[in-house]
Q: What sequence folds into this?
């Protein structure tokens, strides 16, 4: 899979850009804030319909964009992508409903319009058409950040390859919000001495379990598959040969941390039964607090090295290596799931690595992907400049302009 052409209009600092891209390695070199990361962000947005770094969609529309013919100012992104089963054209139009600098908390910041091959579609119809794996310095937060970041990573990754997961995830989020509203209403009724409404509670529990059990099942399966790939990669990144030291392949693990006991179960029906039992156990607490206390929205996973959680006990270098191992594993896992190689987006990560890890990453990604897009402030990170020019397409990015060099 690779993107042949990327077209931007009033997206971030790009007023207009029409960029032809090739297979293999492409390097975008430029100073900070020149627009390098925006190119990767655009492809990630076309793949997932969400920006990996914007607080709101309104931020994505260029400040200088103007309304046309009575319509609000907008940004347009178009990507022409070659996949194994044929070419597709994905387009996202982001309409700004508020003037630049308006308070995003007032709501209605922007609207999206999506087309696939020229036909209007929903977001759910675009997700999965383009598969990407993004590496960025912020990925360190996957280890040390909040559980919500790790849940979001699993949800975004699985949604790219499993439409059933995406549908259940969207439905589950709605059920949690509605169930929480019901719990708060019940709590208020109880405070006034009224019945808690048990029949309605059973209905919400049924919906929660129906959607949540599948999410948990797929997350467990994904982490189990990623574990083997990531452990082997981690051993190589840390200089250990797992063929000579078998224990090295077991020193790194991704461990799922559910909100209720899942020991000994893995199929969807058994997970659902445990989920229902847990909801019965926490019923009184939920009614007291007015929130749903069990389910995939409360789950987490941990990066473990030699049975220690490196979020607490690992150095920054160990944490970075762990995330890198996961991301490299994700490339092979996604190909195994879809039959197509994802596009790799590496945002200024070489500067964070030593020479050994830098070379291993470059060798690994060029072997596993049809297209790799890398940003860098300095080409010196790639070593031999002549060899780089022979194997990669080089672009200079300056002030929202991209020039082949």
A:
């Amino acid at each position: 899979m690779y993107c042949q052409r990327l077209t931007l209009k009033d997206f971030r600092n790009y007023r207009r850009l029409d960029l032809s891209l090739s297979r293999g390695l492409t390097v975008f070199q430029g100073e900070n804030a020149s627009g390098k990361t925006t190119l990767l962000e655009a492809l990630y947005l076309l793949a997932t319909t969400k920006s990996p770094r914007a607080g709101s969609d309104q931020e994505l529309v260029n400040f200088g964009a103007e309304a046309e013919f009575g319509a609000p100012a907008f940004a347009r992104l178009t990507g022409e992508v070659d996949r194994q089963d044929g070419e597709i054209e994905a387009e996202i139009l982001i309409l700004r409903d508020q003037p630049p600098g308006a308070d995003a908390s007032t709501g209605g910041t922007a609207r999206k319009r999506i087309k696939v091959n020229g036909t209007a579609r929903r977001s759910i119809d675009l997700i999965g058409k383009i598969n990407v794996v993004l590496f960025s310095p912020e990925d360190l937060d996957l280890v040390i950040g909040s559980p919500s970041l790790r849940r979001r990573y699993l949800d975004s990754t699985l949604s790219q390859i499993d439409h059933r997961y995406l549908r259940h995830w969207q439905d589950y989020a709605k059920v949690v919000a509605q169930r929480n509203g019901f719990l708060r209403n019940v709590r208020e009724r109880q405070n006034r001495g009224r019945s808690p409404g048990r029949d309605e509670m059973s209905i919400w529990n049924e919906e929660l379990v129906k959607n949540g059990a599948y999410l948990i099942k797929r997350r467990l399966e994904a982490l189990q598959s990623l574990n083997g790939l990531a452990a082997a990669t981690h051993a190589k990144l840390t200089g250990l040969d797992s063929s000579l030291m078998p224990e090295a392949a077991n020193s790194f693990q991704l461990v799922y941390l559910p909100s209720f006991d899942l020991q000994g179960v893995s199929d969807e029906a058994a997970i659902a039964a445990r989920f229902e039992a847990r909801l019965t156990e926490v019923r009184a607490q939920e009614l007291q607090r007015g929130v749903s206390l069990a389910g995939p929205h409360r789950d987490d996973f941990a990066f473990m090295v030699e049975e220690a959680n490196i979020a607490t006990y690992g150095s920054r270098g160990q944490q970075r290596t762990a995330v890198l191992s996961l991301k490299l594993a994700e490339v092979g896992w996604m190909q195994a799931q879809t039959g197509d190689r994802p596009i790799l987006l590496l945002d200024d990560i070489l500067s964070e690595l030593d020479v050994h890890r830098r070379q291993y990453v470059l060798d690994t990604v060029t072997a596993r992907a049809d297209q790799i897009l890398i940003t860098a402030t300095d080409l010196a990170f790639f070593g031999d400049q002549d060899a780089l020019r022979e194997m990669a397409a080089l672009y200079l990015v300056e002030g929202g302009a991209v020039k082949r060099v």
Summary: The longest strand covers residues 86-96. The mean pLDDT is 89. Residues 350 and 358 are 6 Å apart (CA to CA). The domain at 1-131+340-405 is CATH 3.40.50.300 (Rossmann fold).
